[in-house]
Design goal:
This protein is an alpha/beta fold. Helices cover 46% and strands 16% of the residues. It has 14 helices and 12 strands. It has a 6-stranded parallel sheet with strand order 2-1-3-4-5-11, sandwiched between helices. A 6-stranded mixed sheet has the order 7-6-8-9-10-12, sandwiched between helices. Strand 3, helix 7 and strand 4 form a beta-alpha-beta unit. Helix 1 packs across helix 3, helix 5 runs parallel beside helix 14 and helix 6 packs parallel to helix 7. It is elongated, with a radius of gyration of 23 Å. The N and C termini lie far apart (75 Å).
Length: 338
């Protein structure tokens, strides 16, 4: 059976370098790490994670905290999770998905108390998030995928203010003055999910600046809910000529209900997908205009920021806002009245 010494000899590095490549205790270059990993593969060397953790006082595990309240996690979030896992693995860490209601905290305290994790990525962040004090008291490094109200912790997040401005600017440039915003379920607004609150606030401000009549609607994440909300939107204001939908699962139902009313998308009703994935954009008919960051970029940055903090804790919080991009497809056009 191969040993770490065998790996070091084959890779042409010191035994301590192999140890650092496995534990992440000190930074090494990507080229050196790849040599070590290649030697491990050739020798079929499998390090004992528990023994490594005991020696380094690290577990090599990062917890990704996804609250069970977030039972309707969508494809956008799934892409974030996959990218975070890949980035953690490339840095020598395993990613553990940990689900627990935000308000309880009991299992999270046990996870921390037993030293099972080195750090945590925090998903579905609320403006006042109860998981943060628990992690802070335990001295566990963490990075938010999102932002709290005080905005002082390490994070990787989308630039929601930019997203609101870009979306409204596009619709205003096409002459739309009566716009509906179809968001996620009402409980995400009531519970203060940062991304939702910031987008609504930013969209409201952008609408006022541009003289747009904006109606805001919550919607469950189902096609049936999308159909129901579309009917309500069109009944409440028949002048509505554009809709911004931040709810991929509801998109098909929303567009279908508009067509049932005899409306053409985009001639009679332009539709923009907000924080929609490229997959959702390709599955709608017509293909969907979207305003979105690249979700994989957010997940990767969050994991990289946390690993950097684990290795260089004295450098302070690391904060990244990811810009959005407008991808114009066939679901938006000039308003009839323009």
């Amino acid at each position: 059976m191969a040993t770490m010494a065998d790996v070091a000899r084959l890779a042409g590095v010191s035994l301590s370098t192999v140890s650092y490549a496995l534990s992440g205790e000190r930074p090494i270059s990507d080229a050196t790490r790849q040599k070590v990993l290649a030697a491990m593969d050739e020798l079929e060397f499998s390090p004992n994670a528990l023994a490594r953790g005991l020696a380094s006082r690290r577990s090599g595990i990062i917890a990704l905290l996804l609250p069970t309240d977030e039972s309707d996690a969508d494809p956008f979030m799934a892409e974030i999770i996959v990218a975070a896992a890949e980035a953690a693995r490339s840095s020598g860490y395993h990613l553990l998905l940990w689900t627990e209601p935000i308000g309880s905290g009991g299992e999270l305290r046990e996870l921390v108390r037993h030293g099972l994790i080195d750090g945590a990525l925090v998903l579905a962040v609320r403006l006042d998030d109860q998981r943060i004090p628990a992690l802070t008291r335990a001295g566990i490094p963490f990075t938010l995928i999102g932002r709290t109200a005080d905005d002082v912790h390490s994070y990787a997040d989308a630039d929601e203010e930019q997203a609101a401005a870009v979306t409204m600017d596009h619709l205003v440039s096409l002459g739309h003055r009566h716009v509906a915003f179809v968001g996620p379920p009402i409980d995400q607004i009531d519970q203060g999910y940062g991304i939702v609150v910031r987008l609504i606030d930013g969209r409201t401000a952008a609408a006022e600046t541009n003289g747009v009549a904006l109606s805001i609607h919550s919607c469950e994440r189902t096609a049936d809910a999308g159909r129901s909300v579309a009917r309500h939107v069109l009944d409440a204001d028949p002048r509505t000529s554009a809709a911004i939908v931040m709810n991929d699962p509801a998109l098909g139902g929303f567009i279908g209900a508009a067509r049932d009313r005899g409306l053409d998308v985009p001639t009679d009703l332009s539709v923009i997908g907000l924080f929609s994935t490229s997959l959702a954009a390709s599955l709608t008919s017509p293909p969907l205009t979207t305003v979105s960051p690249v979700p994989a970029h957010i997940g990767r940055l969050a994991a990289e920021n946390l690993v950097a903090e684990l290795r260089r804790p004295d450098e302070g919080p690391r904060r990244d806002l990811v810009s959005v991009r407008l991808s114009i497809r066939d679901s938006t056009t000039r308003a009839r009245s323009a």
